[in-house]
């Protein structure tokens, strides 16, 4: 992270991906990110726990998709910085032929994208420097078109990213545009921060520290899955989603909803 970094990285302003990296124990963050993360933890001490369990939710979703329903293509938008067990590592451990397209607009993620591109020879990964707010650009990008077969089911992963889109109507439109472009049998996975399980004063305190978080309640998150078939257990706190750990922390420590849903149509076929 020196002279070869893209010039548009501003190390003096906290960034959600780098703050998340700090909470996960990563090293790809700067003092501004650490200061912001520490300030959030001062008003909400479970922030780090929530970040860790959000990552574990992603792992369970990918394993379910690859092992139980045979999905072999993944579109991971809002990828964040590479850590252990990235989407392609989890999917390709189950089927080496899995194909993954990562999308993020954080320049530091771009600088480390090579870590996301180390695919198993039987599969393929690609990285797009693009913004969730402009889904049409993502869908028409040559890297996506060249990596994924859009006639076969794709799992769209929107993990801890939609709460970074403040305009709710726009957020719904973005998800609709992406899912409309995917064939029947595709899946949508979402995790989304909520204030349903914490005091309103805590949410307000976090918002006073950072303006890049938009809390939505269960009904608002559920609307992202309109027209899709939710996979049991449905929309639930992420620590309760297909989690065998009886000691998983309660929702007030991980105030994040998560769900996985299928676009109606023919059954996805195992590759």
Mean pLDDT: 91
CATH class: Alpha Beta
Number of helices: 10
Number of strands: 8
Taking all Cα atoms into account, the compactness measure Rg is 18 Å
How helix-rich are the residues, as a percent range? 25-40%
- Please trace the helix and strand order, writing H or E for each element: HHHEHEHEHHEHEHHEEE
Percent of residues in β-strands = 5-15%
CATH architecture: 3-Layer(aba) Sandwich
Question: What's the shape?
Answer: globular
Helix-strand layout with pairing:
Elements: H1 16-23, H2 31-43, H3 47-68, E1 73-77, H4 87-94, E2 99-104, H5 107-111, E3 124-129, H6 135-139, H7 142-147, E4 155-159, H8 168-181, E5 187-193, H9 200-209, H10 218-222, E6 229-230, E7 236-237, E8 256-262
Parallel strand pairs: 1-2, 1-4, 2-3, 4-5
Antiparallel strand pairs: 5-8, 6-8, 7-8
Helix pairs in contact: 1-2, 2-9, 3-4
Characterise this structure.
The protein is of the alpha/beta class and 271 residues long. Helices cover 35% and strands 15% of the residues. It has a single domain (16-262), classed as Vaccinia Virus protein VP39 (Rossmann fold), CATH 3.40.50. The protein has ten helices and eight strands. Strands 1, 2, 3, 4, 5, 6, 7 and 8 form an eight-stranded mixed beta sheet that branches. Helix 1 (16-23) packs across helix 2 (31-43).
